[in-house]
Write a structure and sequence with these properties.
- The protein is α/β, with parallel strands linked by helices.
- The protein has eight helices and seven strands.
- Strand 4, helix 4 and strand 5 form a beta-alpha-beta unit.
- It is globular and about 50 Å long.
- Bound molecules: NADP nicotinamide-adenine-dinucleotide phosphate (NAP).
- The site of NADP nicotinamide-adenine-dinucleotide phosphate (NAP) has 31 residues, from helix 1, strand 2 and helix 4.
């Protein structure tokens, strides 16, 4: 048990999720991270979080598997007693042109990027309703707002998260729970390291650089901890990529 705010970041071991975890720890939260398989990265992130004074642990489970989610969220609640901030961040891409896209790629992305938010939020919202407070931030994408060729599965999942965010915001506002989304543009992480056409993207980005994970993390921290009168929003953080 702890007197500090407790934050759970799914996919918090690498990339954007790791940056969110570090930013929330710097702001005084005890941060719990989840990851899928890369234990080495998760352990390293937990060490960095502990160095910031956070009572941190990592939990390995597949956010697209409801039974694993339920089992692990129950363990986290037993250990920490409360969850004040949930960042539904874990996500994957399985890009292909729609005409070639098989059901395997469709289901993998919908389950990992969208159904996961349903599974993870369910037990966490039950707890936040008892607490009568909490903040949820869902990691969408600009492609969920505007679409992208080769990403019908990913765009659908990320658009779904925006609808999920707005509906939960309306259902849970009276219980003291705020729900928002962040829609990142082109952010430098493992997910984007093999993308081509970087020069083409640069031409379209008014701020003339790829985003850094910390750019997203600062917005997540703002929405989670500071934005007391903001709920139901999807905030684009994309250097002006799409205006
Ligand atoms: P990343 O570097 O590939 O990191 C993904 C993280 O999610 C890792 O911690 C990974 O764990 C975890 N993860 C993946 N599948 C999981 C599963 N089934 N269960 C639990 N954890 C899982 O990705 P990123 O670029 O930081 O992206 C983070 C989020 O931002 C994603 O939702 C992504 O769609 C979104 N986003 C990214 C960009 C971008 O340009 N990078 C733009 C818009 C939106 P392991 O380390 O164990 O694999």
């Amino acid at each position: 048990m702890t007197d500090k705010k407790v934050a759970l970041v799914t996919g918090g071991s690498r990339g954007i999720g790791k940056a969110c975890a570090l930013e929330l720890a710097k702001a005084g939260c005890d941060v719990v991270i989840n990851y899928a398989g890369n234990s080495e990265a998760a352990e390293k992130t937990v060490e960095e979080l502990k160095a910031l004074g956070s009572n941190s642990e990592s939990y390995k489970f597949d956010v697209s598997n409801q039974a694993e989610v339920d089992e692990n969220i129950a363990k986290i609640i037993e250990k920490y007693g409360r969850i004040d901030v949930l960042v539904n961040n874990a996500g994957i891409t399985r890009d292909d042109l729609f005409i070639r896209m098989g059901e395997d790629k469709w289901n993998a992305v919908i389950n990992t990027n969208l159904s996961s938010a349903f599974y993870v939020s369910k037990p966490v919202v039950k707890l936040m309703m008892k607490q009568r407070s909490g903040a949820i931030v869902n990691m969408s994408s600009v492609v969920g707002l505007y679409g992208n060729p080769g990403q019908a599965n990913y765009s659908a999942a990320k658009a779904g998260l925006v609808g999920f965010t707005k509906s939960l915001a309306k259902e849970l506002g009276s219980r003291g729970i705020r729900v928002n989304a962040v829609a990142p543009g082109f952010i430098a992480t493992d997910m984007t390291k093999d993308l081509g056409n970087v020069d083409e993207y640069m031409k379209m980005i008014p701020l003339k650089r790829m985003g850094e994970a910390v750019d997203i993390a600062k917005t997540v921290k703002f929405l989670a901890l500071d934005a007391d009168y903001i709920t139901g929003q999807a905030i684009q953080v994309d250097g002006g990529l799409i205006i």
